[in-house]
Design brief:
- Helix 5 packs across helix 6 (113-125).
- The protein has one domain (6-221): TIM Barrel (Alpha-Beta Barrel).
- By secondary structure, it is an alpha/beta fold.
- The two termini are 23 Å apart.
- The chain has helices at 6-22, 44-52, 63-70, 73-78, 92-99, 113-125, 170-186, 203-208, 218-221, and strands spanning 34-38, 57-60, 83-86, 104-110, 131-136, 149-155, 194-196, 213-216.
- Strands 7-6-5-4-3-2-1-8 form an eight-stranded parallel beta sheet.
- The chain is built from nine helices and eight strands.
- 38% of the residues lie in helices and 17% in strands.
- Bound molecules: pyridoxal-5'-phosphate.
- The site of pyridoxal-5'-phosphate has 12 residues, from strand 8 and helix 9.
Length: 229
């Protein structure tokens, strides 16, 4: 094992989230951050352990890995309340498989009209309920009519390796701006649009700027081996 204590690391992350919440301006105090435990490359055992310690939202970004974990017998039996977030790039040929997985809570990475439309068609064909989605930054679905996609907000990964001592990540600031624009143009209440930004090394800054959904992997589960294809 890598010596990580999941119970302790979850506790520590929650404490840091609480602290970051206090540093927010009054007008975004109402946002209740949601911790998504990014379990990519990590074992089913570690997911079960995090679940036993109260974690419910989990993120995966490789389609095949999400498919295998979401349909894993142990997880299905022991984690009835698990909520999966797909946070990777979704290709058309995997769309149908992903969107019909048990306990899939949201697809965070809608990055083209094409993929939105394919997902929508699959959901209608299966007579499924609507699926929650975030639109990944720099894309727009304005004139797409996707009755079975529930737009919940905007997601960004942000520049990799940004030095947080330089102040807020410009990609986070830009996502906040995009939220303002989207709310104005689509006439949506500001509080109805969520932001998904912030990872292990910058989730506190993201929360301070109004992130709802923080995706934390290595700080919970420990160092990740690079995935070899
Ligand atoms: C891997 C990953 C994360 C988690 O990254 P950590 O630095 O381990 O916290 C968050 N979001 C996405 C999209 C990822 O691929």
């Amino acid at each position: 094992m890598n010596g990580i204590n999941i119970k302790e690391s979850l506790k520590e992350i929650h404490a840091r989230i609480e602290q970051a919440k206090k540093n927010r301006p009054d007008d975004i105090q109402y946002i209740e951050p949601r911790l998504v435990a990014v379990s990519k490359t990590k074992s089913v055992e570690l997911i079960l352990e995090a679940y036993e310690n109260g974690q419910r939202h989990f993120g995966e970004n490789y389609p095949q890995e999400l498919i295998s974990k979401a349909t894993n017998k142990q997880i299905l039996e022991n984690c009835p309340e698990i909520k999966w977030h797909f946070i990777g790039h979704l290709q058309s040929n995997k769309a149908a498989k992903i969107v019909t997985l048990p306990n899939l809570y949201i697809i965070e990475t809608i990055d083209s009209k094409k993929i939105a439309s394919i997902l929508n068609t699959v959901l209608i064909k299966n007579a499924s309920a609507s699926m929650n989605v975030y639109v990944q930054m720099n894309t727009s679905l304005e004139d797409e009519d996707c009755s079975h996609l529930k737009f919940c907000g905007l997601m960004t990964i942000g520049k990799y390796g940004y030095d947080t001592s330089l102040g807020p990540n410009p990609d986070f600031l830009s996502l906040v701006k995009s939220k303002e624009t989207v709310c104005q143009e689509l006439k949506l209440p500001y509080s109805s649009v969520e932001l998904s930004m912030g990872m292990s090394n910058d989730f506190e800054q993201a929360i301070e700027l109004g992130s709802k959904n923080v995706r934390v992997g290595s700080s919970i589960f420990g160092f990740r081996e690079r995935k070899t294809k």
